[in-house]
Amino acid sequence: MLFDLDGVLTDTARLHAEAWRRAFDPVLKRAPRRAREPYRPFDPDQDYARYVDGRDRMDGARSFLASRDIRLPEVASPQRDESLAAVVRAKDADYLRLLGERGIVPFPGAVRWLETLARDGLRLAVVSASHHAREVLEAARIASRFDVRVDGVVADALGLAGKPEPDLFLEAARRLGVMPGRAVVVEDAVAGVAAGRRGGFGFVIGVSRGRDAARLRDAGADLVVDDLGEMLR
Fold first, then answer.
1. Hey, what long-range contacts does 41-48 have (CB within 8 A, 24 or more apart)?
2. Active site residues
3. What pTM, to 2 d.p., does this model score?
4. Per-residue model confidence as pLDDT tens digits over 107-164
């Protein structure tokens, strides 16, 4: 069993979305607009789900800004100090502040299902684009439940492509010693569901949390649930 982290196991996706809003909105305010075109802030629900959720940080920033016809250099230059890297750094700093202020809560339904899967002898992995997955898992007190962790730090070290490419999930399956066709992917992001499908995994479960159920099915989820506690029924 291969689990995404934010929004699947822990209620941290909302913190990511809020941190992205704080990082993107100054860029949106400064961007030139056509006459009478209104300023549209980053939408923590729709924009986050469509362009950012589940992706590598740079990929997510690039994808969202491109949707608003904004293209920034990867890194700052003497001609322009605004860059994708600066946006990502601002987001990361705000995310860490929000974690400290609000704490981390695992979803009770997810915890109960993890306990059941462990009793049944299944090997478990957590697969996340986040560079702070270890800290989140430890703060939520669920780190010990997983045999394998493949996250943004591992992706950087190995040069793995982010979701919707399947590289992170395939590396986790390799470390678990299981063929993809014998493993299940659990995801709340369209990009993550697409990665599970592209990787040839045997079954993909989408977690909708009351939103985007149709988009998760369209991306290839075999089953969509609102909460992982439903898997215990």
1. 44/14, 44/17, 44/18, 44/20, 45/17, 45/211, 48/13, 48/16, 48/17, 48/20
2. 4, 6
3. 0.82
4. 999 999 999 999 999 999 999 999 999 999 998 999 999 999 999 999 999 999 999 9
